Amino acid sequence: MSDSTKNTEKLRIGVLALQGAFREHANILRALGAEVVEVRLPAHLDGLDGLVIPGGESTTIGKLAVRWDLLAPLQEKGRAGFPIWGTCAGAIFLSKDANREQHLLKLMDITVERNAFGRQLDSFEADLDIKGLDAPFPAVFIRAPSIETVGENVDVLCQLADGRMVAVREGNFLATSFHPELTDDMRFHELFLDMVRAG
Ligand code: GLN
Description:
This protein has 199 residues and is an alpha/beta fold. It has 6 helices and 12 strands.
């Protein structure tokens, strides 16, 4: 298939639908013209162009991924270059270390601190400048992790004023501490679809 054919074809994007805000992601991806597959079993990964892992509770997502035998196939596909975007709990699940015992994909060379913004800032919104987007993005944080350390191949797309990283990319992996699926701004999903098309 030539690149030009691929560009006009409908992308088939999986949304890991074990727990959390997967419907919101699915709605936006569909609005942007993608075919969406809710992924609950390894067979659902067949034929996908990319995958979104939603926010929710990373320990629960990890446990369910183990129970449904999804951990190994996801790791295998990820290592082979399959595009994956994790939001919030999804970003934690993608990371190599969350400073706790829990099931992680360990695909991204990032370490995260869960619930990094403390009680008072449990949930907040901020307009953030994101590398690759032309105007500030309304970012919703809910018991969000911060990205504490990144490997040398990780590109930092967004840092808060205090220096904490909240959006990063490493090759075909994308991680955001916040929830672009909980706003009606679809630019972050467009950015991911562009990444999938290019990949
Ligand atoms: N605090 C959750 C966790 O540690 C993430 C919260 C979210 O995804 N909104 O997994």
